[in-house]
Automatic annotation (TrEMBL):
It holds the Pfam family Alginate_lyase. Keywords: Lyase, Signal. It comes from the Bacteria. PROSITE patterns: TAT. The keyword Coiled coil does not apply. This is Alginate lyase family protein. Residues 127-278 form the Alginate lyase domain. InterPro entries: Alginate_lyase_dom, Chondroitin_lyas, TAT_signal. It comes from Streptomyces fildesensis. Residues 1-38 form the signal peptide. GO terms for molecular function: lyase activity.
Length: 426
């Protein structure tokens, strides 16, 4: 078990090399071309060639024999990069850091509000601890970032206080939104815990053990079996399950969560290679043409990058896209890079939604000619992975990403991604 705090650059380089090698192998087989590659490495080609490659991704390995820590959404190398940029006053990281420190989530006077049972109905009504739990989890992650980047131990202490407070009290999530609430809060907690535990912040062994028990007994059982609801539910739940599995070093749960993720992504983002209709979600409860069309909000014309919730609203669509990018990023850090498998769908989804978020006219064939916009601060992680690391041209996504900087938080499970992932190749 590797629990040290020093990074392993050779492993990160090997991950990138393997990612490029996977793409190169598909190229030589004639399965990838055009927009799926960097403009500087290959000439443009028809989009259909790029789309066709997405359904022929190579198999990926199982959970790592040794987990990398910190390794949920951000690695030690990425954190070191951010700290160096902030100390140098470089942009956009310094502005992003200042925005984070000025937020209520970074307040050193914050008082945790744990409760034994968090009850969340539809749209958090009733809201018995739902907002408190999510925001305390985001605050713990915010404080963990502030600690590592600024090396001010007060923030480490505040993160520990928040995590210890909740792990001492919470026993369950109830009501109709319990799985989603557990997924949202359960996505933020492991990010905070990984940074605090593996960077010498001074978390007691008793505190770590109790927090791990909380994740194992209260959070993981509620998310690991997935959901037959809208795709953003299951994707957020799997993000929590993957992060928790990394913190617990639970290879069985990690593999189960990744298997569900790999089945859900193709059923959430449409590519023409899927056929006339989108893929049915795993589980078999939705499989006829009429059921699939209903599940896709009544949409009957399908275009690359359309998601199962595009015609519902961009806000929920953003939740799903964000969870996909977060899981892919964590798997990359853990040496099981899923970007070659999900990257084309992620690229198309980001570009499609960004185009209309930026103001493009909506055709009558798309959601009856009307879209409910509000994508949120969810593009940085996927854009950094696909554009900055792999060199893929993403004009609409780039414009929206840069326009929204420095990205803040969606107050659910997304936070400070300009700070952590802008131009970050770590």
């Amino acid at each position: 078990m590797r629990t040290g705090t020093t990074p392993r650059p050779p492993r990160r380089r090997r991950t990138l090399v393997l990612a490029f090698a996977a793409v190169a192998g598909l190229l030589s087989a004639g399965l990838v071309a055009g927009p799926a590659l960097a403009a500087r490495t290959a000439p443009a080609a028809p989009q259909s060639q790029s789309v066709a490659a997405a359904s022929k991704s190579p198999a990926v390995a199982a959970a790592p024999a040794t987990f990398t820590h910190p390794g949920v959404l951000v690695s030690r190398g990425q954190l070191d990069f951010v700290r160096a940029q902030v100390r140098a006053g470089a942009q956009p990281w310094k502005a992003a850091y200042d925005k984070m420190l000025a937020s209520p989530y970074a307040s050193l006077s914050r008082t945790p509000k744990p409760r034994s049972v968090v009850e969340c109905g539809s749209y958090s009504n009733p809201n018995n601890g739902c907002t408190d739990e999510r925001e305390d989890a985001i605050a713990a992650y915010t404080d963990a970032l502030a600690w590592y980047i600024g090396q001010d131990h007060r923030y480490a202490d505040k993160a520990v206080q928040l995590m210890d407070a909740w792990s001492a009290v919470i026993t369950n999530h109830t009501n109709s939104n319990a799985p989603l609430q557990t997924g949202w809060a359960g996505s933020s907690w492991p990010r905070a815990a990984e940074i605090i535990r593996y960077t010498g912040a001074g978390w007691s062994s008793a505190g770590v053990t109790r927090f791990a028990t909380m994740l194992r007994t209260v959070y993981l059982p509620k998310v690991i079996n997935g959901s037959q609801s809208n795709g953003n539910w299951e994707l957020s739940m799997m993000e929590a399950a993957v992060g928790i599995s990394v913190f617990l070093e639970d290879r069985t749960s990690y593999d189960k969560a990744i298997a569900k993720f790999r089945g859900r992504v193709p059923a959430y983002i449409y590519l023409p290679s899927d056929g006339a209709l989108p893929k049915a979600p795993p589980g078999g409860s939705i499989d006829t043409s009429a059921e699939i069309i209903s599940y896709w909000q009544g949409q009957r014309t399908f275009t690359a990058g359309l998601t199962q919730e595009t015609c519902r609203d961009f806000t929920h669509t953003g939740y799903g896209i964000s969870a996909i990018s977060h899981i892919a990023e964590t798997t990359r850090i853990q040496g099981q890079d899923l970007y070659p498998e999900v990257g084309e769908r992620l690229r198309q989804a980001l570009g499609f939604q960004a185009k209309y978020q930026l103001g493009a006219a909506v055709p009558s064939s798309l959601c009856g000619g009307h879209l409910n916009l509000g994508l949120g601060p969810v593009t940085e992680v996927g854009f950094n992975a696909l554009h900055n690391r792999l060199g893929i041209a993403m004009a609409n996504t780039q414009q929206l990403t840069e326009q929204q900087r420095p990205a803040g938080s969606n107050n659910l499970f997304v936070a400070w991604e300009t700070l952590t992932h802008a131009d970050n190749a770590g």
